[in-house]
Write a structure and sequence with these properties.
Blueprint: H1 16-28, E1 50-54, E2 57-60, E3 65-68, H2 83-94, H3 104-116, E4 122-126, H4 129-144, E5 148-152, H5 170-173, H6 184-187, E6 190-193, H7 198-207, E7 212-217, H8 233-243, E8 247-252, H9 263-267, E9 274-277, E10 288-292, H10 294-297, H11 316-331, H12 335-355, E11 361-365, E12 368-372, H13 381-385, H14 389-401, E13 404-405, E14 414-415, H15 422-440
Helix pairs in contact: 2-11, 3-11, 12-15, 14-15
This protein binds pyridoxal-5'-phosphate (PLP) and 5-azanyl-4-oxidanylidene-pentanoic acid.
Residues 35, 37-38, 73-74, 169, 223, 412 line the site of 5-azanyl-4-oxidanylidene-pentanoic acid.
Length: 441
Amino acid sequence: MEPKTPATSKPEYDLSRSHEAFLRACKVIPGGVNSPARAFGAVGGEPPFMARAEGAYLYDIDGHQYIDYIGSWGPMIFGHAHPTVRHAVVEALDHGSSFGAPTTREVDIAEAVVAAVPSIEKVRFVSSGTEATMSAIRVARGVTGRNKIVKMTGHYHGHVDSLLVQAGSAATTLGFPNSPGVTPGAIEDTILCPFNDVSAVAAAFERFPEQVAAVILEPVAGNMGLVPPRPGYLEQIRELTRKHGVMLVFDEVMTGFRLAFGGAQERFAIDPDMTALGKIIGGGLPAAAYGAKSAVMDFVSPAGPIYQAGTLSGNPLAMAAGLATVGMLRESPPYERLEAISARLEDGLRRAASDAKVPHVVQRVGSMLTLFFNQGPVHDYEDAKRSDTALFGRFFWEMLARGVYLPCSQFEAAFVSAAHTDADIDHTVDAARDALRAIVG
Ligand SMILES: Cc1ncc(COP(=O)(O)O)c(C=O)c1O
Ligand SMILES: NCC(=O)CCC(=O)O
């Protein structure tokens, strides 16, 4: 079937094949999906099922083409099915897909991470961002001999029990910040603070003197929509944690290799004690990592006593995809262009929303952005929750029908890739203008 070219005027939009697939899926998969974030719970309706993806585009089984701003929720910084990544994975596959024994490719990618991220001297590879943050917390507790963790409301660190409290992403969307099955014991050592509020963290340290092992945060929050740190916030948190002997853990699963080659910590010149990486580091295959100075990482088994393991950790295919992606980021950095096209999108969306006279704010850092239907500015979770999610849902569907695939929740960030062209951006802005006109008249 020839893909239908996206048009900004709303074409007939038929998802009957996806509907059939969804009915089949719902019989054998909970909610029809393998992760709630893709279920359209926040926008209503059923998701299109995807057939393939290439460059900046997704193609569904009903024959529609979409300009993709999810990028697999972050990994696809060069767009989909990039030939260099594909070639690396195919070559790796020809040599066997998993050995359960060390490979030189793991050393190559570890060296690449250490060279890219100054705060990391040693790094351990795992298979998901969830494992990376879970392990980082375990190490922080093991190294400090303290139990408590400070977490920011609206920040999402994967589905780790102790961190699944007032988490963002689909946990916000689905409205059960504390999931059934997470025991009171699992979260009793988790202290919640609002993002961008240094005094709340200082108060937590005073209330629990010498009991806090770590502060974990997304340096630029992407799981309650895009929320930048206020100027000076990260610096003050760094100073405060150092003063109290608390480890500062940056969850750079989203921001790592995206906001700069060295991640948000390079962009904001902060030296965290530990870093969780994911998404881009796996180049679209399942890989993630956590790293720190050697003095910390040497506590990790088998060098030290803190246990952490994984059958598929350092998987050859995932390492090949990650290495190819990191190599391209280093050899031909896309960051300047990403900044330029993302700014073009930001400006265009802002103009479209202003002209439609809907309350809005567009927040962006690098190639991550959110159009909030909210007066703004959005500094924390409480601000984000004031958004008009019903309006967002209508806008989302109007955009989808016009061939633009935005993240399917107000509480997610959109990702721009190096594969997006100026024409894609302009098409998106035209679609937004039409969509808002269709909604508000
Ligand atoms: C900031 C952040 N941390 C951790 C995770 C968890 O990663 P994963 O979904 O690979 O487990 C995600 C996304 O899911 C994330 O955005
Ligand atoms: N911002 C949300 C995610 O990145 C998670 C995607 C998923 O769990 O499917």
